[in-house]
Amino acid sequence: MVTPFGMGTLTMGFSQKNLSIEEGANVIVHAVREGINFLDTAQYYDTYRYLRPALDLIRQDSSLEMPVICSKTLETDATGVRAAVDECLRDLDLDVVDIFLLHEVRGVADFEERKEAWETLIELKKAGKIRAIGISTHHVDACERMALEKDCDVVFALINKAGMGIRNAENPGTRAEMEAAIRKASDAGVGIFTMKAFGGGNLLEDYVPCLDYATSIPGNQAVMIGLGTTAEVDQLISYAYGRMDASFSPDISGRRLRVDQSDCEGCGTCKARCVSHAIYWNENGLAQIDPDKCVRCGYCAPVCPVRAIIFL
Description:
This protein is of the alpha/beta class. The chain has helices at residues 21-33, 48-60, 78-92, 108-113, 115-126, 140-146, 175-187, 207-216, 230-240, 269-273, 300-303; strands spanning 5-8, 38-40, 68-73, 97-102, 130-137, 154-158, 167-168, 171-172, 191-195, 222-226, 257-259, 279-281, 287-289, 309-311. It is globular, with a radius of gyration of 19 Å.
C-alpha cells in the first residue's frame, strides 16, 4: 500500500540539484515524517547515497514506518540486472526491494530487446529479492504492451496535462493515447503510478491544475513528484490534504531552463526551435542553454523527444 503521492529522488541527484548527502537525507526523512511512504530511486540516479542514511534514521525512529522503495535499472542482460538488484539491496541495507523496474523502456521493440533482463527480474522476484516488478516508460505502446504481460505488477508511466514528453513507438504520443494505455493496463490488473506531472518543471506555474489532472486519470493510483527541498515537500503535503488555495503558484523566479545532460541525445530539435539562439553544442556534442540569451519562453521543451529540457 502506497500513499497517493510519492517522492522522486532524481531531483536531488547529480544531474539536477546535486545536494549534499546530509541535505538529501534530511529532505527524505522530512517527507516520510509528513506522511509520504513511497520513494522512487534508480541505479542511474546515484541517489542511494541519500536514501541509505535517510533509511537508517527512519529505522531508528519507532514512530516511523519504513517507506515503500522503488528502484530501476537500465541494464539489458541477466548479469547486469542481477548486479543492479544486489547493488540496491546492499547499498540500502534491504533484504528485499519492494518494486524493481526496467528503467525507461522505449517502446515495445525496446522491451522485446530487453527480454533477458525482464526474465531475470521474474527470477529474482521468485527468489524473494523483489516484491513487484514492471517497467518505467514514456511510451504509450510500452504501457499498452504490459497489459498483456502476465508477470508485470506495475507500470511507472509519464503523463501530464500538456502531454509533454509522451512518445508512441518512434513517434510523438498524445495525452489521450497515454490515458487509454493506462486504463488498459489498469483494467488488466497492473498497478499504475505516474511521473512528470509538471513536465520536468516546465508546467510548475500551473501547480494545482497539474496535480488535479494527474490525480484524476482513471487507473492512476499514485503520482510520483520529484522533491529536492523541505519546502517542496510541504507544498505537496498542503495540496494532498486540501489546504492549498486553488490559485497557488510557486515562486519560479530563480529557476532556469537547462538540458539534462544525462538524457540529451544531441538530436538538435531544441536548437532548431529556439527563437533566441540560446542553445548551442557543448564539448560533448550535446545541447546546452546559454542563460544570458535564454528568455525562458519554453518553446524548446515540448519539442524535445526525450524530455531532456527541465526547468530547475
